Amino acid sequence: MNARQADLGRATAADRSAEPFDLERIRADFPILRQQVHGKPLVYLDNAASSQMPQPVIDRLVRYQTTQHANIHRGVHLLSELATSEYEAARCTLQGFLNAAQAREVIFTSGTTDAINLVMHGHGRKFIRSGDEIILTTMEHHANIVPWQMLAEETGATIRVVPLLDTGELCLDAYAALFNARTRFVGVTHVSNALGSINPVKAMIATAHAHGVPVLVDGAQAVPHMPVDVQDLDCDFYVFSGHKLCGPTGIGVLYGKAALLEAMQPFKGGGDMILSVSFGGTVYNTIPHKFEAGTPPIAAAIGLGAAVDYLGTIGLPAIARHEHALLQQATAQLGALPGVRLVGTARRKAAVLSFVLDGVHPHDVGTLLDQEGIAVRTGHHCAQPLMTRLKLPATVRASFAFYNSPAEVDALVAGVRAVQKVFA
Predict the structure, then answer these.
(1) This prediction's pTM
(2) CA neighbor of 223 nearest in space, from 331, 106, 330
(3) 135-148 pLDDT, tens per residue?
(4) Under CATH, what is the fold of the domain 66-312?
(5) Domain map of the chain by residue range?
């Protein structure tokens, strides 16, 4: 990697779009949106689970697979050197996207879950002991609960939980009161996948750092919707998945401060994460390679870089404005329907709207909406402790992306009305 690559990567973090937000042009970039489901135009509102992929990203994947594919880092032939260059250029692109201080602070993983597990094994198992405490929040995804429970069971550590207000916001006074001399780690989601609540992670990080405690931020639901600057947040770790960011599945990112990554033990052993191996011992490679054992998801990493480049042509600020308008429209229209209860009314929200219908199970709502071509998510959204706090078995979740339209919000509202008529 070189200075020019790093500069190109940093440029993706800026809003480079000089043109007005052109929804029709953007929608034309997504071939999947042109299909029908059950004879109805597809209205895809399950973006919090996985977003769709634009044609430029698809084309980039095809170009790699057809003209550039080879294994990386160890080959001296042209294709290997080209694949290595493209893979590392993608790392620089992600460095710029997050405004990480160094490209080596960007670790490619298989996704958010893999990244959290890497930190749990590499940092948690090395530094957390019996009697230590880990702070999590009520609204965490299971991926940011279960690994820490596994660690607590193994070490004898204790998990303490930040309570939730009825609005779907965290109780920050209670959060501050959880810290003591035994606190060793904090895990917090940037944006709730089930409620859309945007947590004040910068302030929460500052509170933790005042006690000398590192913080991992689950950014899976944040990076598709807003600019993220890890240096400004001062987070110690930040994780997210490519498939929620218009990229491929099977790829994600762990950002970590270099000093913390260097102190961590590797999670996986194998090729490329070593400098030398003998039966007398192994010397591990430098970061980021220490945490990328074996053949990595090369094509997926390059595809993720292309997705970030694509989003940069639109601009995350413009994306945030459009999605906020969709969220306001959906909130107003669904909130006005009798028998509809909106779940999560935080003052700051990303483009996620959860709701329940009186007398109708969320799974039935989702099934009937699907018959109208409307894709939503129903269930506990891998956030069962949150559902327990809300006293709900499940919700219906409509999650919006920048390629969704006001007409699709209208279709959702009309679909909900139709469901209510069926169960009347």
Answers:
(1) 0.94
(2) 106
(3) 999 999 999 999 99
(4) Aspartate Aminotransferase; domain 2 (3.40.640)
(5) 66-312
